[in-house]
C-alpha cells in the first residue's frame, strides 16, 4: 500500500481533511437514459403524435408484409410449363406469384428474338461488358488507364462486331429487329453512357467558352433538349431524322433510338459537368495560365481531372436516370426489357390472374437492383471524396 | 533593359497562328460553317424526301376535320366537326390539368415525407427512406404500367362497384363522383372568394407596416383565413346554399349521372405524384438540413418559441435552398406527363405526336409544335421561378 492510500483510509486527524484519493465507480445512468426502454422512448414513443404514428406503421406493416410474403413466396408457383400451372382451381383457390412464368420466359426476357444458336454472342458481350464496368469502377483496379481505353474504344468495336455480326469472321448478321429484352436495355444505356460523357464535356466547355458562337450553339442545344420530354426527342429521332438524311442512307430503327437517347443524355451530362467546372476555384485556371499552358492542355491536365472527380456522384446519378429512361424506347417500336415483359404478360399461353403482377415484380427487381447498386456506388465515391477533402 | 525599351515602342510580334484572337475567330468560323452546312443539307434532304414520299408541308392540316374521338375533353370537342387545331387545344389542356393537379399533390407528399425522413422516430423515417429508395430506383414507366394494369384494371367490374363515402363509386371504368352544379347566385360566392383574397392581401400589408412602425403584431393568419375561407362560406349560407350535387346512381350495367374520373387519368396522376414526390422528399430533406443548427439555437436565445422559430427562421432559409431544385422537379413532372401515351390518357403528346402524326404524316410540323409547347412551358416556368428566386435569394455583398 502506498502512502497516499494509507492516508485516504486513515481516520482524519486534527488539521487534516478527509480527502478521497481514488475515484469511486460512477453509478450507472438511470434507465430512462440508456438501455432498450430509453431507446424506444426516444425513437418510437416520444410524444402522443409519435406513439400514434408508430402504432399505425406497425399495424400497416403487420397488414401488408405477411400478405406480400405469402404472395411472393409461400403461395407462389415455382415450376410449370404453361398457364395450367398458375390458374385458380378448386383444389388451389389462392395462387401467389407465378414464377414459373418468369422461368419459362427468362430467355425471351434476356435475348428477345435473337436467334437461338447465336445467343452465346450476347453472353460474351455481357461478360466483356462486366469486365469493363468492374475495371472502370473498381477504384483500386490495376492499370485503369488501359481499362478506360478498353471500355471506351475496344469494347464498343468488339461489341458491334459481336452483336451485329461480321461474316468475314464467321459471325452471321443478326438484324437489330430481332434484338430484344435485357440485351436492348443494356445496349441503349451503354451507348448513352459511352457517348454522353465526351459529348457532354464538349458541350459544357462550349457553354463556358468565351467564344460567342460556340457558347450560343451549346446553350441552344442544351436548353432545347432539356426543355422537352424524352418521348418527343425519340419521336424526332424516329420520324424526323429519316427525313433529314438522304433516302438511300436511312438509319436503322434501333440506331435512330440510340441517337435520340445519346443526344438527350448528353444535354443532361453537359449541365452536370458544367456544375463541376463552376465549382473549380478561379485560382486553378489562373495557375494553369501562369504556367503558360494553352487552353487544351489546361483543360486536359488541370481543370477536367479535378472537375470530373468531384462530379462522379452526379454523373452516376445521371446514368441512373438514363438507365430508367431507356424504358421509353418502346414508343418508337424498340423491343426492350419492359416491352418483353408486356408482350409475354398478355400472351394467351400464360393467361393467368397473377401473371401480370409477377412480370412487373420481376421487372421491378431487375431495375431496382441495377439502379440501387449504381446509387450505392455513387454514395461510396462521395464518401471517399469527402474523406479526401477533410483537413 | 532591352525588353523594357522594346515593349515601349513596339507591340510584341506574334505570328497570327499563335494569336488567341485570330485562333478563336477561325475556330468559330469553322464551327458555324460546319453547323450551317449540316442544317442546309438536312433542309435540302427533307425537301427532297417529302417530295419523294408526297407528304404535304406547312400547317394547312390545322383546320382540317380531325375525325377521331378523344376520351377526356375540357373544352367542347366532337369527332365529326372539330379540327386538328381544336384537338391540339384539348390535348394541351389535358396535359396542363394533370400537371397542375400532380404538382400540388406531389408537393404535399414530398413535404410530408421530407419532414418524416428527418423524424427521430425510426419507423417514420424508415418508411420515408424506403419510399424514396424504392420509388426513385424504378422507372416511371414501370410504375405507371403497374398502377394502370395491375391496380386500376384489377378493380371490380361496374356490376359490383366499390361504394365510397359521399356517394362515390370506384370500379374498372374509373372513379364516379357527385358533380357540383352551380345554381344562380353562386357567382356571389366566387366574387366573395376573390374579395376575400384581395382583403387578405391588403390586411397583410397593413399588418406588416404596422409592425414595422410600432412593433405590435396582429393576428395575420386568423384574419386572412377568415377573409379567404370564412367570407365565401358566409355568403354561401346567406344566399341559401346555391349549389346542388348530381349524385351518380349505380345501375346494373352502368353508372349514370355524376362525373367520372377516368382510370387512365388516375393511373397517370398516381404514377407522377408518387414518383415526383420521392424526388421532392429528397429536395426538402436537403433544404432543411442545409439550415445549420446554430440558427435554431440563436433563435431560442432571442426568446422565440419553437413554432415561431420554425416559421420565421427555419422555413424561410430552407425554402431558399429548396426552391431551385423544386422548380426543376415541377418541370420534370410536366415533361413526364407525356408518358400518358403508355396508359392512353389523351394528353398533348398522345393526341398530337400519336394520332395526329399518324393521320397526317407531317412529322416535322407535328413533332415541332409539340416540342415547342413543352419548351415554352419549361422556359416560361424557369424564367418565373428565377425571378421568384432572385427575390428570395440572400442579398450578398
UniProtKB/TrEMBL annotation, chain A:
SUPFAM superfamilies, per the entry: MetI-like (SSF161098)
Entry annotated with the keyword Membrane: yes
Principal location listed in the UniProt entry: membrane
Chain ranges passing through the membrane: 49-69, 120-139, 146-166, 178-206, 227-248, 254-273, 315-338, 350-375
Keywords on record: Cell membrane, Membrane, Transmembrane, Transmembrane helix, Transport
Compartment(s) of residence: Cell inner membrane; Cell membrane
NCBIfam families documented for this protein: HEQRo_perm_3TM
Family stated for the protein in its record: Belongs to the binding-protein-dependent transport system permease family. HisMQ subfamily.
Name the record gives this protein: Amino acid ABC transporter permease
Source species: Alsobacter ponti
From TrEMBL, chain B:
Lineage: Bacteria, Pseudomonadati, Pseudomonadota, Alphaproteobacteria, Hyphomicrobiales
PROSITE patterns, sorted: ABC_TM1 (PS50928)
Domain ABC transmembrane type-1: 92-385
Coiled coil, from the record: none
Gene3D superfamilies for the chain: MetI-like (1.10.3720.10)
Name used for this protein in its record: Amino acid ABC transporter permease
Primary location recorded for the protein, binned into one broad class: membrane
Record bears the keyword Hydrolase: no
Membrane-related topology note: Multi-pass membrane protein
Residue intervals passing through the bilayer: 25-43, 55-75, 87-116, 128-148, 185-204, 225-245, 265-291, 366-388
Keyword Transmembrane set for record: yes
Family per similarity comment: Belongs to the binding-protein-dependent transport system permease family. HisMQ subfamily.
InterPro entries, alphabetized: AA_ABC_transptr_permease_3TM, ArtM/GltK/GlnP/TcyL/YhdX-like, MetI-like, MetI-like_sf
Organism: Alsobacter ponti
Protein localization: Cell inner membrane; Cell membrane
Keywords carried by this UniProt record: Amino-acid transport, Cell membrane, Membrane, Transmembrane, Transmembrane helix, Transport
A matching Pfam family: BPD_transp_1
Amino acid at each position: 500500500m502506498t502512502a497516499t492510500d494509507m492516508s485516504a483510509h486513515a481516520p482524519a486527524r486534527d488539521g487534516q481533511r478527509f480527502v478521497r484519493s481514488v475515484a469511486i465507480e460512477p453509478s450507472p445512468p438511470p434507465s430512462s437514459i440508456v438501455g432498450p426502454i430509453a431507446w424506444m422512448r426516444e425513437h418510437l414513443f416520444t410524444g402522443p403524435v409519435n406513439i400514434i404514428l408508430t402504432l399505425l406503421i406497425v399495424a400497416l406493416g403487420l397488414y401488408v408484409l405477411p400478405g406480400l410474403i405469402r404472395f411472393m413466396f409461400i403461395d407462389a408457383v415455382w415450376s410449370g410449363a404453361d398457364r395450367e400451372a398458375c390458374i385458380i382451381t378448386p383444389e388451389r383457390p389462392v395462387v401467389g406469384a407465378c414464377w414459373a412464368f418468369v422461368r419459362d420466359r427468362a430467355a425471351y426476357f434476356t435475348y428477345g428474338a435473337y436467334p437461338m444458336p447465336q445467343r452465346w454472342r450476347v453472353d460474351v458481350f455481357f461478360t466483356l461488358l462486366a469486365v469493363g464496368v468492374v475495371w472502370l469502377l473498381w477504384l483500386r483496379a490495376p492499370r485503369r488507364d488501359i481499362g478506360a481505353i478498353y471500355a471506351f474504344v475496344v469494347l464498343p468495336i468488339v461489341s458491334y462486331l459481336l452483336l451485329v455480326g461480321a461474316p468475314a469472321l464467321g459471325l452471321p448478321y443478326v438484324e437489330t429487329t430481332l434484338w430484344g429484352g435485357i440485351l436492348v436495355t443494356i445496349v441503349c444505356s451503354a451507348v448513352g453512357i459511352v457517348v454522353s460523357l465526351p459529348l457532354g464535356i464538349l458541350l459544357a466547355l462550349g457553354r463556358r467558352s468565351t467564344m460567342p458562337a460556340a457558347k450560343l450553339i451549346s446553350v441552344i442545344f442544351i436548353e432545347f433538349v432539356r426543355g422537352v420530354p424524352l418521348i418527343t426527342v425519340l419521336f424526332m429521332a424516329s420520324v424526323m431524322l429519316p427525313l433529314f438524311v438522304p433516302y438511300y442512307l436511312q438509319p436503322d430503327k434501333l440506331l435512330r433510338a440510340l441517337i435520340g437517347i445519346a443526344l438527350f443524355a448528353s444535354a443532361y451530362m453537359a449541365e452536370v459537368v458544367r456544375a463541376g467546372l463552376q465549382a473549380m476555384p478561379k485560382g486553378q485556371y489562373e495557375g494553369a495560365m501562369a504556367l503558360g499552358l494553352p487552353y487544351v492542355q489546361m483543360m486536359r491536365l488541370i481543370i477536367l481531372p479535378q472537375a470530373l472527380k468531384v462530379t462522379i456522384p452526379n454523373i452516376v446519378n445521371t446514368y441512373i436516370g438514363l438507365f430508367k429512361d431507356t424504358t421509353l424506347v418502346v414508343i418508337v417500336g424498340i423491343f426492350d426489357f419492359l416491352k418483353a415483359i408486356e408482350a409475354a404478360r398478355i400472351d394467351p399461353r400464360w393467361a393467368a390472374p397473377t401473371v401480370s403482377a409477377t412480370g412487373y415484380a420481376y421487372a421491378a427487381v431487375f431495375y431496382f437492383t441495377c439502379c440501387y447498386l449504381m446509387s450505392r456506388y455513387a454514395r461510396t465515391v462521395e464518401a471517399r471524396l469527402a474523406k479526401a477533402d477533410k483537413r | 533593359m532591352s525588353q523594357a525599351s522594346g515593349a515601349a515602342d513596339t507591340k510584341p510580334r506574334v505570328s497570327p497562328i499563335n494569336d488567341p484572337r485570330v485562333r478563336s475567330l477561325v475556330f468559330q468560323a469553322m464551327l458555324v460553317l460546319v453547323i450551317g452546312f449540316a442544317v442546309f443539307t438536312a433542309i435540302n434532304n427533307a425537301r427532297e424526301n417529302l417530295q419523294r414520299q408526297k407528304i404535304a408541308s406547312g400547317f394547312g392540316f390545322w383546320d382540317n376535320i380531325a375525325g377521331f374521338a378523344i376520351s377526356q375533353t375540357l373544352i367542347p370537342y366532337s369527332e365529326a366537326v372539330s379540327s386538328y387545331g381544336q384537338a391540339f387545344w384539348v390535348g394541351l389542356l389535358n396535359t396542363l390539368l394533370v400537371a397542375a393537379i400532380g404538382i400540388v399533390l406531389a408537393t404535399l407528399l414530398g413535404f410530408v415525407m421530407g419532414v418524416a425522413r428527418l423524424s427521430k422516430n425510426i419507423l417514420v423515417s424508415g418508411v420515408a427512406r424506403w419510399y424514396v429508395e424504392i420509388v426513385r430506383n424504378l422507372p416511371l414507366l414501370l410504375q405507371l404500367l403497374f398502377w394502370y394494369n395491375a391496380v386500376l384494371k384489377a378493380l371490380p367490374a361496374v356490376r359490383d362497384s366499390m361504394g365510397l363515402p359521399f356517394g362515390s363509386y370506384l370500379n374498372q371504368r374509373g372513379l364516379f363522383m357527385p358533380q357540383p352544379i352551380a345554381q344562380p347566385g353562386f357567382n356571389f360566392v366566387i366574387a366573395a372568394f376573390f374579395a376575400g383574397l384581395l382583403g387578405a392581401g391588403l390586411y397583410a400589408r397593413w399588418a406588416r407596416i404596422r409592425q414595422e412602425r410600432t412593433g405590435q403584431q396582429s393576428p395575420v393568419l386568423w384574419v386572412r383565413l377568415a377573409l379567404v375561407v370564412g367570407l365565401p362560406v358566409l355568403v354561401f349560407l346567406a344566399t341559401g346554399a346555391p349549389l346542388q350535387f348530381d349524385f351518380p346512381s349505380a345501375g346494373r350495367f352502368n353508372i349514370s349521372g355524376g362525373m367520372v374520373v377516368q382510370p387512365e387519368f388516375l393511373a397517370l396522376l398516381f404514377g407522377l405524384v408518387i414518383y415526383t414526390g420521392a424526388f421532392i422528399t429528397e429536395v426538402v430533406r436537403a433544404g432543411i438540413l442545409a439550415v445549420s443548427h446554430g440558427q435554431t439555437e440563436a433563435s431560442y436565445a432571442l426568446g422565440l418559441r419553437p413554432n415561431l422559430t420554425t416559421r420565421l427562421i427555419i422555413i424561410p432559409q430552407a425554402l431558399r435552398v429548396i426552391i431551385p431544385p423544386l422548380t426543376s422537379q415541377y418541370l420534370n413532372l410536366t415533361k413526364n406527363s407525356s408518358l400518358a401515351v403508355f396508359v392512353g390518357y389523351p394528353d398533348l403528346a398522345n393526341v398530337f405526336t400519336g394520332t395526329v402524326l399518324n393521320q397526317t404524316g407531317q412529322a416535322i410540323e407535328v413533332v415541332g409544335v409539340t416540342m415547342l409547347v413543352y419548351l415554352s412551358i419549361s422556359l416560361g416556368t424557369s424564367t418565373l421561378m428565377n425571378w421568384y428566386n432572385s427575390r428570395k435569394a440572400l442579398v450578398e455583398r
